[in-house]
Amino acid sequence: MDIMWYIFDMLGTVAFAISGALVGVAKKMDIFGIIVLALATAIGGGVIRDCLVGHFPPNSLQGMAYVLVVCGVSFIVFFIYRTRYYKQVMGLWSRRSYMMADALGLASFTVTGASVGYAAYPELPVFIVLLGTITAVGGGILRDMLAQQIPSVLKEDVYALPSIIGGVAYYLMRHGNWTFEPAYGAFMVVLVIRLLALYFHWSLPKVR
Amino acid sequence: MDIMWYIFDMLGTVAFAISGALVGVAKKMDIFGIIVLALATAIGGGVIRDCLVGHFPPNSLQGMAYVLVVCGVSFIVFFIYRTRYYKQVMGLWSRRSYMMADALGLASFTVTGASVGYAAYPELPVFIVLLGTITAVGGGILRDMLAQQIPSVLKEDVYALPSIIGGVAYYLMRHGNWTFEPAYGAFMVVLVIRLLALYFHWSLPKVR
Amino acid sequence: MDIMWYIFDMLGTVAFAISGALVGVAKKMDIFGIIVLALATAIGGGVIRDCLVGHFPPNSLQGMAYVLVVCGVSFIVFFIYRTRYYKQVMGLWSRRSYMMADALGLASFTVTGASVGYAAYPELPVFIVLLGTITAVGGGILRDMLAQQIPSVLKEDVYALPSIIGGVAYYLMRHGNWTFEPAYGAFMVVLVIRLLALYFHWSLPKVR
């Protein structure tokens, strides 16, 4: 199952990088700006998490894989848009498959974050849940702050809530010594809730 | 006097959380966004401080108290606005008492920050003063960055200056081995200057 | 040559502080806001770098020199604008010499960042290059985020690219055990590319 896990993590990284690169394109940034936004979205959450637990250098910067994948994705997005074939490509890489990859990323990043928290501070449930959520949504918040727009996760959609619930599920399953592997359980919790939220167009309550 | 200290710290946390939640409401965020802004405002400054001195996990995340209080405050603000009784409630919790709680928070956060700095690096006065100020105003800056508005502390009011002066006072009193407890002295310095600034509507000079 | 190095570093700090203070003036901030933007621009990149490698407290906060120089620069900019003699002063301190000082800062900050990375993790080339670039451009990004504008380095000009190339050059020269001092080599690489970019008005490609 470990190879499966790695695939989910990479799919999430790619989906997050695409989301960052697309915001960069929309804001008329140059190729450096597009790469920075893709990096911020894909590895920003994990970097903030590692800073909060005091792991240096951050996990995603200990090798080249993540940074190079994100740079590669950025260049691909850039050239697709540049050649103006993006409508055709967007047809292939439909919104639905993008949303699926993004949901896989949300789920795997949540579990990674919560497990880093549990490994370091098993006695701090609130911190563990927070780390899962920050890993999953922190990058998107950073992307929107760099692009000068109010972070979408704070206004729209049910995006952070599945991550919070997944973090709680992870903690409870680890804490309760379930024989079932907590990582897979929590992963499924996030994924299912997120897909339900997408399917039924859920949104969180606002004041008005 | 320790219980007094804890009360001031909690009053400040509540006041800062309210200020964050209100900005979230004003920016039409959902309940998750409101909680994030309240958390950023109430514990963001302390988290940045702990990152700068290398204390992990940050103090406010080592237990559940701060996070749960801030979440509770966010839900209360949310439901008050939702039920549209907020005008009546705002009458009870008048602007004056809010400003008093906020000033208590500014003072207690400044002292906490400066004392963390002094404990770790007593030979670095500039760093100590900076930590006091970051603890006190960093959360509000983070709140405004998340809400896409220029941080109010950079443009209006005399808000950071009392904190800077209080940090200097704290350092001088610790360094000079005053018999009077430096924490209370510095706390009063911040509080008095802040309340004077509010009463006389002081503001810092601008270019024009 | 060490005194030379210190001069370049200070020239860069002064140039970056000026750039931050000018944005603060343009956004009608008060003197505290102007100082915060100058500090963010001049030492923000280095602070982020030190957080990523786990050096606490950050290098620029271990003494008073940087903070006091930046505060001094902020006050000078403030009073020049306040007295409305700034057109005459701007004539003296022409755009050309400002750009030269800024380019020296870009070069020296890149080398400092890359050398911090190499000292800590010589086996991580991507991280080393990233640290050089973050040290050089991170402060400007922070400045623009505080001032609510899209970071200029993400949209305009060839500013980060010289730093990236310089970081790569630094790593290759260190890794290859060149007898020539890598710091000076990389410094010249950044400086020459940046000055060429300014002279020929280069810019990075955009989608449209």
Automatic annotation (TrEMBL), chains A, B, C:
Residues crossing the lipid bilayer are: 6-24, 31-48, 60-81, 101-121, 127-146, 158-176, 182-202
State the membrane topology: Multi-pass membrane protein
Q: Does the keyword Metal-binding apply?
A: no
Claim: Secreted is one of the keywords in the record: no
Predominantly, its location class is membrane
Keywords noted in UniProt: Cell membrane, Membrane, Transmembrane, Transmembrane helix
Q: Pfam families under this entry?
A: Gly_transporter (PF03458)
Q: Which residues form the Glycine transporter domain?
A: 6-81, 100-174
InterPro entries registered for this protein in UniProt: Gly_transporter
Compartment(s): Cell membrane
The family this protein is said to belong to:
Belongs to the UPF0126 family.
Task: Give the PANTHER family listed for this entry.
Answer: INNER MEMBRANE PROTEIN, UPF0126 INNER MEMBRANE PROTEIN YADS-RELATED
Q: What is this protein called?
A: Trimeric intracellular cation channel family protein
Q: Which organism is it from?
A: Veillonella absiana
